[in-house]
Amino acid sequence: MKIAIILPCLGGGGAERLHVSLANYWATLGHKVEFILMKKNGELVPLVLPEVSIYDLKADRIRNILFPLVSRLKKIEADITLTAMWPLTSISTIAWYLSGKSGGLFLSEHNHLSVSTGKGTALHAFFLKATIRVTYPLATGIIAVSKGVKNDLCDIGNISKDRIRVIYNPAATGIICQDITKKKKNELWACKRDYNILSVGSLSDQKDHKVLIKSFALVSKEINANLIILGKGPLKKALMELIAQLNLQDKVHMPGFFLDPSPWFCSADLFVSTSKWEGFGNVIVESLECGTPVVSTDCLSGPSEILDNGRFGRLVPVGDEVLIAEAIVESCKEMHDKNKLMDRAKEFSVQKISTEYLDYFSKENVE
Q1: Could you give phi then psi for residue 353, rounded to 5 degrees?
Q2: CA of 258: how far to CAs of 8, 144, 289, 294, 316, in Å?
Q3: What is this structure's pTM?
Q4: Are residues 277 and 342 both part of a single domain?
Q5: CATH number at residue 237
Q6: Which pLDDT tens digit goes with each residue over 36-95?
């Protein structure tokens, strides 16, 4: 098949990463895959296989992509067009319709929109609902990355639950954790302590690293531990100031964004996510894949589904510094079955999820 994937860019976010994994895997199966990007940039561009083409719309704003996208869709006549992240999904639907509706169009939503866009104005909320209710019914199929995202999308768009298919993210990418030497471990974690605690995510309000750092201040009174936060984002300065205020400079480090964070996942004693909301939570799966235990907030809407309501990791209330700290300390001191965690991660493998996508494409196109 010819498969077109429409995205804003290939930045380091979870949605972008999963589409690179899908595209690369589909290309190895012999499908012809093309990324159509608003701008050809982002940290993940180097990870795209040579067999996967990238078309640059060269558009700085989403409002400028409609007619260039119509033109590109007309030219390539894809069998499947997959697009993600509202409002790009709605614009892509209009472009697909104007281009002649070649093949099938599938819209994929990766966030809890009622929460992630909840700080907008009343006009913004109206625009969100209106565009989804007008454009989404035109698509061949709709994909949500978790049951929580599906329910949210149904409420916003007044969409029947039968119209939306839940397909989890292919977040288990086949990492093979090798033993990290003591020297390398000390280099990664800045200094040697009894426990190494990891968090990975953009330095934004959604990930709530402020609460994580405050929780770690309580943790450090109980156990001798390091905290590494990997990622980049607008709140780095504020978080650095909080670290200094709590006198944690020698225990909390933020080395930035890394294309391959697997050495930290493999050498961590615990992974912690304190998100206020999630669409799915790729990093939780990445941690499980390395056999690293997880403490996560029980936020909307992916972590509880990945951890099966606590069977594969601890779930704690959003924003509760004390309970998060307690869960971290208790998890560090517990024995964990790494094989059990790694087996759970296999449920989210690239091969398994990619096949679910292809099956859904075929089913909906036939119908």
Answers
A1: -70, -40
A2: 21, 27, 18, 20, 27
A3: 0.92
A4: yes
A5: 3.40.50.2000
A6: 999 999 999 999 999 999 999 999 899 899 999 999 999 999 999 999 999 999 999 999
